[in-house]
Design goal:
Elements lengths: L2 H14 L2 H8 L3 H15 L4 E3 L4 E3 L1 H27 L5 E7 L1 H18 L3 E7 L6 H4 L3 E6 L8 E8 L1 E5 L1 H7 L13 E4 L7 E6 L2 E6 L5 E2 L2 H9 L4 E5 H10 L3 E2 L9 E7 L7 H13 L35
Length: 327
């Protein structure tokens, strides 16, 4: 007896509540279905079904076995599907949603790499700062930056932390001074990212606990990338994701401030609908993102460039003696 085939037949009989309907669904004769169930019961030494002329009832043992069959067969189906998907080149359109500022700063090279590896895929990226509904709007996956994710039917994979840094242009700090404690920010012009959790209330972690300071400024935007040019130009201080300002900090165009007082991190996630069989195009996207953002990748917290040291002039020979060649 093929035990797996018998388990599938038994599951179908219970789902259909009928030998006749199960036989039609499986493409077998009613007699063949009945024999498989009888052989399975004999193999197990237990009655799984009560048969009458009018109804088909599952026994207590049959219900327990049915639940176990469901789990085992689902796992088997999933394993087979994953093996088939590994052999299948991803094709078709992949619809991806991502936050606008993150997409502008980071996603371009990732999409290029995805297209390079899987040229038969069509990638459609929609940048939006709203919280899209993947199922209602037909997205395959979304990238989200959150402290926590709401409970949902979506699968979420955490990729890496997203640091936020307080920074300003060297020129601004030279003119207005460098804050040594978060409370001093109240006396500075601050560039406000309006989509942050608390745009005007910046909270830093201090040795005595969280410290929140109320900040204001002359420039506000719902896109962190738009704030970078005014920041470089010395218009104020900003608290922005590291991916928006990392290159400028490393190049010395911006300087980090208040480093002893870190802010709470967000996390970068990729989310996608829960399906029994993960499609190849979503699988390769998730795998590439996990590879790309390993240990933070391009959005890791930046370090400032070390200041360049001027070469000291060679000491002069005060004796005035000329160098003699050795012979």
């Amino acid at each position: 007896m093929d035990i797996v085939s018998a388990m599938r037949t038994y599951r179908q009989v219970v789902d259909s509540s009928s030998f006749t309907a199960a036989a039609q669904a499986l493409g077998l004769s009613k007699a063949a279905v009945s024999k498989q169930i009888s052989d399975l019961e004999a193999h197990l030494g237990a009655a799984l079904l009560h048969r009458t002329t009018r109804r088909l009832n599952v026994t207590e043992a049959g219900q327990l076995y049915f639940e176990r069959c469901q789990r085992l067969l689902d796992e088997l189906d999933l394993a087979e599907a994953e093996m088939r998907n590994l052999q299948t080149e991803p094709t078709g359109r992949l619809r991806l949603s991502a936050p606008g500022n993150f997409g502008e700063a980071v996603l371009g090279p990732i999409i290029c790499e995805l297209q390079k590896r899987y040229p038969k895929m069509t990638v459609q990226v929609e940048l939006s700062n709203r919280f899209v509904d993947l199922l209602e709007e037909g997205f395959d996956a979304a990238i989200r930056i959150r402290t926590t994710l709401p409970d949902s039917s979506l699968i979420a994979r955490r990729l890496c932390p997203v640091d936020r840094v307080a920074c300003a242009a060297p020129g601004y700090l030279k003119r207005h001074g460098t804050p040594r404690h978060p409370r001093e920010l109240a006396d500075h012009n601050c560039l406000i990212y309006t989509l942050s959790t608390s745009p005007h209330d910046w909270t830093f972690n201090t040795p005595t606990g969280p410290h929140t300071v109320r900040v204001n400024g002359t420039i506000q935007s719902n896109n962190s990338q738009l704030l970078v040019d005014p920041l470089r130009a010395g218009h104020g201080i900003a608290l922005l994701p590291a991916f928006s300002v990392g290159a400028d900090i490393q190049a010395g165009r911006l300087r980090r401030i208040l480093e002893p007082f870190p802010v709470d991190r967000h996390d970068l996630y990729v989310v996608y609908p829960h399906n029994r069989h993960l499609s190849p195009k979503v699988r390769v996207l998730v795998d590439l993102l996990a590879e790309w953002f390993q240990d933070g990748g391009p959005i890791a917290c930046p370090k400032e460039r070390a200041p360049e040291m001027k070469e000291k002039p060679a000491a002069k020979d005060r004796s005035g003696a000329k160098e003699r060649s050795l012979r």
